Every structure is written in structure tokens, then in C-alpha cells.
Amino acid sequence: MQRILLLIPLFFLFSCYEAERNCNQFREGTFEFKTLVGDSIETTLFYRNDSIEIEKYKGVTDTASIRWINDCEYVLKSLSPESISEEKQMHFKILSTRDNTYRFEYKIVNSDQKETGKATKISEENLIKH
User: Fold this and answer.
1) Residue 116 three-state SS
2) What is the per-residue pLDDT across 3-41, written as a single tens digit (0 to 9) for each?
3) Does domain 2-123 have CATH number 2.40.128.110?
4) Pairing between strand 40-48 and 52-57?
5) How far apart are the first and last CA of the chain?
6) What residue ranges do the domains of the chain occupy?
């Protein structure tokens, strides 16, 4: 019984912990996102400012408008969709921040299926070359 009483304060300590979310430092800059696709790691480079995001993946550059919902959530809409799937808006939510990285979840607007990722800020400048 004494063990249980000792564990109760630890439970409350960890249940009250909230992840750091300093989202404003990630509103603008150049970022890198790596993900496992099949057996290889693919890298996406993107630049974001307050109203636009330019993404470069496998040599293809795409541009999307940004609508910020709050400091940590935004919606992307492709400016030149080439398919029906690219016409769908994407909702992003920054879950936590640490140093120059942030963890996020994203999904198609009005969908329940979410994916997660981690992005690293590599510069304050736009490093994307068309």
C-alpha cells in the first residue's frame, strides 16, 4: 500500500507535464522533413513565410498558400494542383517544439486519418532554388 501512495505524486507530476510549444519561431524559415518511404529515407525541403510555403521534393517545386488558424495550426492549399488529390487542403498542427525542431501531425481537411512527422529548421532564409 505504501508503494502505491508513493507512486501517486509521480503520476500527478507526469500527468501535468505539457510539451513545449514555442510555435512562433517556426512560422518562417527553411525546413527539412525526412521520412521513410519503402526502404529509403526521402527528404523534403520547404520554405515558409507567413502566407506561403514553397516545397521541393525529388526535384519538383510546389507552392501553397498558408492560412494560420492559431500560433500552432495552419492549413495549406496548393496554388497549382495537378490532380484531384492535390486540390485537397492539408491541416497541420505543431505538437511540440525543441531547439530547432518541431513535431507535428497532419491530415487532409475533414479527414480523421492523421500522420505525424518531425521538421528541422535549417535557416531563417529561403534556401529553395527553383
Assistant:
1) strand
2) 554 445 545 445 555 578 899 999 999 999 988 888 988
3) no
4) antiparallel
5) 66
6) 2-123
